[in-house]
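Side project, low priority. Logging it here so it doesn't get lost.
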Amino acid sequence: MTQTTEPTPDYTVMDGPEMLKAMSDDATKWAAAFCQIAAKLGHAGIDEGWMISWFANAIEHSSDVRRWRREAATNG
C-alpha cells in the first residue's frame, strides 16, 4: 500500500480562525505551523519532531483538564 501525504500548507498566510480550523487537534500540524512562523520571525532550525512532542503533550493535557473540570462540575 502506498501512503500519500499532502503538502504542508503555508500556515504563515492564514488568519487565526483559518489556521485553527486547518490544524484542529493535530500536533504535527501545530508543530509545522509553529516552525514556519518561527522561521519567518528569524528563528529557523527548530526541530519539528521535538515540537510535535510538545504540542501532542499540551493537546492531551488540555483534553484531560477539560474532562476533569466536567467531572468536578458533575460531581460537585
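Brief comment: DSSP finds three helices and no strands in the chain.
Revisit when time allows.
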